[in-house]
Amino acid sequence: MKTKLVLLLTSITLFGCVPNQIDQVVDEVINDSTVIAIDSTRFDSVEVDKGDIVDNLDDTLVINDPVVVVATSNVFKPLFHIDYEQCGTPVVSENSIQFEAGRVRSEGTYRNITKITATVDLSGLRELNWVNASFYMVNGSDEYCDAGNSGSPYCNEIDFLETNGNVATQSTIHLDNRQRYEYAYTHGLFENPCWYQDEMMCCDGDGVINATTINPDEPFNVVTVFEPDYSNMTVTFVQYENEVVVYDFLHHLAAEGSELDNLDGLAESMDRGWKIVASMWQGYSPNPNSSYNYEDEQCKEWSDLCRGIYVISNIEVTAEEEF
Description:
With 323 residues, this protein is mainly beta. The protein has helices at residues 197-200, 266-272, and strands spanning 6-7, 25-30, 33-38, 46-48, 53-54, 61-62, 67-71, 74-76, 80-85, 91-93, 96-99, 102-106, 110-121, 132-138, 157-164, 168-175, 178-186, 208-211, 220-226, 233-239, 242-248, 275-281, 310-322.
């Protein structure tokens, strides 16, 4: 019989390794093992055999099943190199990038990611349409790959942020040529005449999230969190006291056209490692509820990509390791 444990701890000693602080220990039964994921400062993964005792708990914990203890709380600040440029070279300063179109990719690859955060500034995209400021990751490769099926080799991709100017956004998980996505719209909707506001706002919660408390004229944070067993991913926009969950695989309705109904392959792909990518480009942008107004003369053509400026900074990746 397998044991399922949910413990709230403040300290623990595992074979002489003492993390500074542990918020929680959460397990999930997977195949023939119980996996316990620990949020703490890093220590090496440890396999504990049946009957072993882990000391220094409030009460001694006797392991009744084989378990693997996995630490996933190193925080890394990625360094980036330029993949391509257009309209001028992206300016890379440590892990801050200013785009006038182009793409950057992380030098490192990250295994077993649990959290990714960044600050984005879309103020340079005000009243620009069909310009995509993106922040995403691809399932590690020395050569660039993505899930776009548009010339680059295919690989799994997770989009934390794609935009249509500073009005509409999309977050997507692409796994094995299937995807699940959600849209959102910011306060920029009320400043851009090229969108039908009523159509955009008609169906909040049906794969489209009202994020109008987020003002895209000011920077905001994009916070992506994965459950320890990779059964869920959430993306939250945070600006001052305002927080809007714009993606929740388990608890939100997916946008129409989504095909991915489970994350069964995510844990395996996380173990292979992911590259972090940011770009500003044209070729696709989200159009929630088909609410873009093509009928207006000033809105028929895409905006000039080279007029836009997109800044992303404070990028941090919480993962088991960087390699």
